[in-house]
Amino acid sequence: MTRQDRHIEVEDWTERFAGPRSLPRALRDELVARSRIIKVAAGKQIFGPGQATDSLLFLLEGTVRVSQTSESGREIVLYRAVAGQSCVMTTACVLAEDAQAAEGVAETDVRAVALPKSVFDEMVSLSPDFRDFVMSAYRRRIHDLLRVIDDVAFGRIDGRLANRLLELAGTADSLSVTHQQLATELGTAREVISRQLHEFQRRGWIVQSRGKIDIEDRDALAHVVDSV
Amino acid sequence: MTRQDRHIEVEDWTERFAGPRSLPRALRDELVARSRIIKVAAGKQIFGPGQATDSLLFLLEGTVRVSQTSESGREIVLYRAVAGQSCVMTTACVLAEDAQAAEGVAETDVRAVALPKSVFDEMVSLSPDFRDFVMSAYRRRIHDLLRVIDDVAFGRIDGRLANRLLELAGTADSLSVTHQQLATELGTAREVISRQLHEFQRRGWIVQSRGKIDIEDRDALAHVVDSV
DNA sequence: GCGGCAAGGTGACTTTGTCACGGACGCCAG
DNA sequence: CTGGCGTCCGTGACAAAGTCACCTTGCCGC
Q1: Cβ atoms within 10 A of the Cβ of B89, count?
Q2: Which end is more exposed in chain A, N or C (fewer Cβ atoms within 10 Å of the end residue's Cβ)?
């Protein structure tokens, strides 16, 4: 990456995250010097237990899946950080400090700004906009976690599964995913997913093939989601 | 409360939460004028859906139980904010902004500083110590929520119940609590709790009477907690 | 074609949640 | 004291979800 490219990137992200109004020129110049743009290939772990990071990541492109693994080895997806949404801070900072079993994995190729903690602190103190951004990021995460708790504690898995299928598919009507991956999404066991998908297929809502699911009846699936 | 009392309170809490070092005299004086000490009786709701608050609470005395209720009416306790611990900010701010189903209830009589949002923002921008305090409060909450998710998704209820019994009892070996209350703590149904307690009693770990549980064998209960 | 491996299927069983009761206890009015 | 009433708790039958063990099927490289 040339120096010019890098400068362009920085101009871009400081305006996106901090707001041009409240970020003094001097501070921005210092940020140019003290941050760097990193790329992570799809599938790589970005943060996780036993991996102390002292920088925070701000997504420019790609999505990061954040999940938690229990002692017994079972896993559940907590949320996704998606570039382009309002909230693009991976909570590396939060989760890395607990030596918890939370980890973040790049789901696609990821491009992000790595901001050292010291710089982060400066920005928080100097830029009200940046501060708002950080606060709303935390709020958003807590909101996501509350949703997970509600689903896991009170939701039925048929509805939760139907929901994930529609979410993961987006506008497409076919998605490549294994039963095990879906089980991990929902924090349950593969057999449970297999049985539910079998039932969905029996009803003609989906068609399964190895590692792939075709959605045949969106409305029926959507109906299951909120019938719960 | 006399003017003198009030001043003492303020001296007290600003030093506790913001650190004397980094809070300018002028700001502190303004805080004296712009905050107030409130009291809440045990059992009263402090924040909840449909109750917009524009001030934040910092606990001086008492404990606040924060729980979430699903559409179906089932409830689960998310965490407790306890005065005297490092983290005493109720997340009214966070949870109130989502019109979510999270609510905070005073478990004991509560005394707290009510800080208007505008003053909160000023303090965040002016005091690094206060900022750290707020950040670590958020971290702590997220940590608590991750624990809840782990328990609900992967934990067995016998272990979770034994854990709550020991937590709620503290050092006492008797606690006044109904099966329904315990069910709410764990986000499950009363019948489930009744059956488990029946089993605990059969094994001689506890003795039940109406609305009351006597702990007979702490070690056995503690062993169930981590056998899970 | 074939060996090996990951994906998926299945049955038996346990644990947890749901539903519909009914009985027990405390408390207060008559 | 007695009859109601509300809360608390017990229980059985069932449904939903998770666990365990083992099997089959499709796929890919050789």
Answers
A1: 23
A2: N
**What stretch of H or E contains B37?**
strand B36-40
Give CA–CA dist B82/B95, Å, rounded. Answer: 17
- Cα–Cα distance for residue pair B156/B210, rounded to 1 Å: 25
A131: enclosing H helix or E strand: helix A128-154
Measure A195 CA to C18 C1' (Å).
Answer: 21
- Residue/partner pairs of B189-194 with CB below 8 Å, 24 or more apart: B189/B74, B192/B157, B193/B161
Contact (Cβ atoms closer than 8 angstroms) between residue B196 and residue B157: yes
Domains and CATH numbers, chain B: 3-152 (2.60.120.10), 155-226 (1.10.10.10)
Residue-averaged pLDDT of chain A: 85
Q: Round and report the angstrom distance from CA (B122) to C1' (D29).
A: 65
B152/B55 Cα distance (integer angstroms)? 32
Residue pairs spanning A and B at CB distance below 8 A: 91
Please give the residue that has the higher pLDDT: either A144 or B117. A144
Q: How many CB atoms lie within 10 A of CB A28?
A: 17
Of A139, A128, A111, A224, the closest CA to residue B98 belongs to A139
For residue A7, what pLDDT band results from cuts at 50, 70 and 90?
low
At B46 the three-state DSSP class reads: strand
Distance CA B129, CA A94 (A): 18
Residue of A nearest to B145 (CA): A145
**Low-confidence winner among A67-71, A91-95, B132-136 (lowest mean pLDDT):** A91-95
CA distance A205 to chain B (A): 26
Closest CA to B93 of B27, B138, B34, B123: B138
Helix/strand/coil for B176: coil
**B183/D2 CA-to-C1' distance in Å:** 35
Kindly list the residues from chain B whose CB atom is less than 8 angstroms away from the CB atom of residue A133. none
Q: Tell me the two tokens of residue A72.
A: 């017994």
Residue A12 clears pLDDT 60, i.e. is over it: yes
